[in-house]
Specification:
- There is one protein chain.
- With about 210 residues, the protein is of the alpha/beta class.
- The chain has two domains: about 90 residues, Translation factors (Elongation Factor Tu (Ef-tu), domain 3); about 110 residues, Nucleotide-binding domain of ferredoxin-NADP reductase (FNR) module (Rossmann fold), CATH 3.40.50.
- The protein has five helices and eleven strands.
- The strands form two sheets. Strands 4-3-6-1-2-5 form a six-stranded antiparallel beta sheet.
- β1 and β2 form a beta hairpin.
């Protein structure tokens, strides 16, 4: 989708320093959880853009992106102040490491990677498939959705940032499945090491590096 102006339909807190923003889905916008969009604030003289991963299980009517808020950031605090009816310039979707109906989705997420993690896991369960989420963060967000996933039969493991994830990852991949990894570079290294310790070839994982 070329860049176009889209209305915001809702903005809500999803945990410490994080909001979920619902955006009206335009015609012919076919996106999967795990893909991402480019977002620019209209009228921004500096034309600063950011990329945010879709965190809703589908894009019917609206789609959701989860935004972590750095108070010193140039864009995220302004996104957090948006209200229903405001508009954003959006392009995409982009990315090739997303959910494609795999029978079992195993998502290993650090920090903001929980956005695509919950979207993928919810979509997998909706499709009648299985899901597992390993999420590492000292200030977790989307906790209600993670609790709901666990209640619906998904494997969910929530870890502190300094906690070793080897055992949790081994448990998550014990029944096989397509592995997804979302997070910053240091987290990706730790997740890769945990996968290798569990006997999983990390080259087969779908990986998105957030920087």
């Amino acid at each position: 989708m070329d860049e176009r102006l889209l209305p915001v339909t809702a903005v809500r807190s999803v945990g410490p320093d994080a909001v979920a923003i619902d955006i009206e889905t335009p015609p012919e916008f076919d996106a999967r959880p795990g893909q991402f969009v480019k977002v620019t604030l209209p009228g921004d003289e500096d034309e600063e853009s950011r990329f945010y991963t879709i965190s809703s299980p589908d894009v019917e009517g609206t789609f959701e992106m989860t935004v972590g808020i750095d108070p010193e950031g140039a864009v995220a605090p302004r996104l957090a102040d948006l209200e229903a009816g405001d508009e954003l310039l959006v392009a995409g979707p982009f990315g090739s490491d997303y959910y494609e109906g795999e029978p079992r989705a195993v998502v290993i997420a650090g920090g903001p990677g929980v956005g695509p993690a919950v979207g993928i896991a919810e979509r997998a369960l909706q499709d009648g498939n299985e899901a597992a989420v390993v999420y590492q963060d000292d200030d977790p967000i989307h906790v209600e959705r993670l609790d709901a996933l666990e209640a619906d039969g998904a494997f969910v493991s929530l870890l502190a940032e300094d906690e070793d994830m080897t055992e949790a990852v081994a448990d998550a991949v014990a029944d096989g499945g397509q592995v997804f990894v979302y997070g910053f570079a240091d987290f990706l290294d730790a997740a890769t090491a945990a996968l290798e310790a569990a006997g999983v070839d990390a080259d087969g994982a779908k990986v998105e590096n957030f920087g």
